[in-house]
Amino acid sequence: MRSIEAKGLTKDFKVYQSRSGLKGAFRDLLNRKYRMIRAVDHINLSIEQGEIVGYIGENGAGKSTTIKMLTGILEPTSGTLQVNGYDPHREREQFVRTIGVVFGQRSQLWWDIAVRESFRLLKKLYRIPDDSYRQHLDRLVEVLEIGSFLDQPVRKLSLGQRMRCELAAALLHRPRLLFLDEPTIGLDVLVKENIRHFLKQVNKEYGTTILLTTHDLSDIEALCSRVVMLDQGKIIYDGDLERLRSQWGDGRRLILELKDEISLSALNERSHGLALRWEGEGTRFVAHMENGTGVSDVLSRLVPAVTVREMKIEEATTEDIVRRIYREGITHHA
Predict the structure, then answer these.
(1) What tens digit of pLDDT does each residue of 236-294 get?
(2) Domain ranges of the chain
(3) How deeply is 140 buried, as exposed, middle or buried, from its count of CB atoms within 10 A (0-12, 13-18, 19+)?
(4) What kind of architecture, by CATH, is found in domain 251-315?
(5) Is the domain 2-7+42-246 a CATH 3.40.50.410 member?
(6) pTM value?
(7) Strand runs (DSSP E) across 18-59, as ranges?
């Protein structure tokens, strides 16, 4: 069974449109004007059980609206949606027992009581049997290393400690599907690494499907084999990271430190006919090489005329590629 199956999923919002000036304000009191905004535009999304999928896009691209529909908070305007075999909005009571949700900016733990007591309340809400609860909680406490502050109020925890407790809370009832919205926001490098390692374990041991929404693309690279990219409410890419790099990557960068100064025009003349673009001045230059142009091709043209003191080759990162797509638009990469 697929974890998520969405076809033609669409969400429109009716937004109040105010008119300018004092006269406009009086007119708005008597006759308000509205306009429709399409936040999610006929997307098709299929996620298999056990996948870890990154769901990315700029602010306003429609990510949060999609997640709210997938978790049953919002009802779609049109389209069909099945999550863990349920209609999330119409079969909400049964459905929520099959999912876990962690929002980096919101807490599901009670602020003024001990973490352990929050877990007990969640146990009752999800009707988890005693034996299953104790066994699974012990495992979560051990792997997430939260035993030392289980008896502290949530308000006294650091951000890193709270996020680890949020993960434990979301996984207490062993959900088949876990939604993560910015789970490592504001965390230091070590805590991020520990959380990533834990999520990989959960996915491997329990087959938990994970849908990760984040602006930190290092999370995507560390966890996800597949990425779905959203722009203006539409899916513009759905596939693995390697295909993203090869399809929309800007090739490699060759960074050169030369012994003597040379002009950009001289470098362009030397590399005429090669698929690359030069940047820099003086003795330091960067060649942005398109796919198909090799480092040896560039050096064979330059070495007879210049002396290279240092050389470094860099691959375009996922963050570079995504930033370029957002900046230039999809039409530059299709």
Answers:
(1) 889 887 777 666 665 678 899 999 999 999 899 989 888 888 989 999 998 888 767 78
(2) 2-7+42-246, 251-315
(3) buried
(4) 2-Layer Sandwich (3.30)
(5) no
(6) 0.77
(7) 33-48, 52-57
